[in-house]
Amino acid sequence: DPATLIKKLVVITGASSGFGVELAKLFSAAGHPLLLVARRLELMQALNLPNTICTKVDVTDYKAFEDAVRDAEAVYGPTDLLIGNAGVMKLEKVWDQDPKEWQEMLNVNVLGVMNGMKIVLKDMMARNSGTIINISSVAGRKAFGNHAAYCGTKFGVHAISETVREEVCATNVRVSVVAPGAAETELLGHTSNDSIIEGYKAWKQTMGGKSMDAVHVATSCKFIYDLPQEVNLRELVIAPTKQN
Ligand code: NDP
User: Residue 149 in contact with residue 102, Cβ under 8 Å?
Assistant: First the structure.
């Protein structure tokens, strides 16, 4: 039966740059059909991956996000893996930061991850299978100056994911968190404060000037997914060796 030869649907949020692009390329090369979710549609389409639906969706819009997942499932079958990767990082001191930036980080990094889980979990539980990998950060495990709101959102990703993991584990559904350290993506470009950006770049000099290649984060997600469904690597921290 040719249908059994086709690998299962993988949904990747934030697939227009950084980790999301590497995740899309890696899971596509392994034969999975994909749903790619982000706002910059043309960047996802330019990847030109087979069996891939690209959708211009903001993860904070629950209805649009759910509709995109249901449409992809109608074509490729149930979602077997959701990678909650979309995120924003706007660095600033609390007393200098526009509260709109706190709100955006909370909306995307926390509520976007929760939206994704709500959309796929009931079906995964009913099938007694499925995997969710949420992308947190080393900033979800320790504090960094200028990162108050960002750290808050990423600590939240750990807390929320671990809570949901406990709630669903009896159904054999896996929830895992990957916490990367500094990596070369567009992330630093979200911050508007030039002196904070310069400070971050100076910190990167302590790692040899270049931080981790995004591909290694994608590889670690693939490793988690490829373990047997009965084995859940609950949390993985991956960072440049020289990151303090
Ligand atoms: P990028 O800025 O390169 O990618 C962020 C992605 O998130 C983009 O595809 C962007 O797409 C998407 N995104 C942002 N807001 C939304 C939204 N409202 N709806 C849908 N998609 C959205 O950064 P990274 O690849 O580095 O970031 C990926 C994840 O990794 C984030 O959660 C980040 O916090 C985390 N991380 C990154 C680290 C690093 O050093 N790079 C370290 C630790 C964690 P678009 O703008 O097209 O919507």
Answer: yes
